[in-house]
Amino acid sequence: MTKIARFRSPAYQGFGLIEGETIFELESLFSTTRGSAHALAEVSLLAACAPSKIVCVGRNYREHAKELGNEVTAEPLIFLKPPSSLLAHEGSIVYPAISGNVHYEGELGVIIGPRPARRVPAAEAGNYIFGYTCVNDVTARDLQRKDGQWTRGKGFDTFCPVGPWIVRREDVRFDDLRVRTLLDGEVKQDASVLDMIFPLGAIIAFVTEFMTLEPGDLIATGTPAGVGPLQAGSMVSVEIDGIGVLRNRVVAAQQAAATL
Ligand code: MG
Question: What are the residues whose beta carbon lies below 5 Å from ligand 1 (ion)?
Fold first, then answer.
């Protein structure tokens, strides 16, 4: 299985290929030529991708739409998170002082590539999927509801943990994937990706009809039922067997500021 991460060492920052306990520098996400080797234990993983945009699907699992009292939409419900919200595996989710209801949303992440995707028919969408990762679409639910549009509620710095790495599409048995979210060790979400209302082909066709997806862009494909609140001190993990475990601690905003 090929695992591609982004990492930082004292002398390097960029993509890398993980093999066992070693990570090799890569010139780009799509490069197959290994550069210098580093001990995995001695580098810091960064957010697994560096997208030009993060495209998200809302209400893509029936039971989740129902739990928040929403109707299922006739077409995919699309919104964006800013790249400034990206966070690495084991980075801290900062609980904003201006929200009192921050939720986890475990999701399958799709990485576009190696070609740009524009007006892609659903049946050809697989050719534009480079790989998969785990995403937590962290959401200030109170601000999302109050604002009507979702930019603020979804867009805080640290509200998009992604990783710990990307697994190439060829190495994944898609039909077997389950998205599981654990809060302080307790399973809160657990659903098959086959329960998505709009499958990946339909999402990519819908999005690329109006927007070019660039190589490296990230799609968060929607969250299953079981969303719920985080607290400062919570440990949340999004786990997808065959991909990885994305783990993040929540810290209060004041505490985060004090440790900068
Ligand atoms: Mg979501």
Answer: 105, 137, 223
Residues in CB range of 203: below 8 A, 6 or more apart: 57, 60, 76, 125, 219, 221
Cα(58) to centroid(ligand 1), Å: 5
d(CA 179, ligand 1 centre) in Å: 12
Show the 3-state SS of 83-114.
Answer: HHHEECCCCEEEECCCCCCEEECEEEEEEECC
CA of 79 to the centre of ligand 1 (A): 9
pLDDT tens per residue, range 66-106: 888 888 889 999 999 999 999 999 999 999 999 999 999 99
Task: State pTM to two decimals.
Answer: 0.96
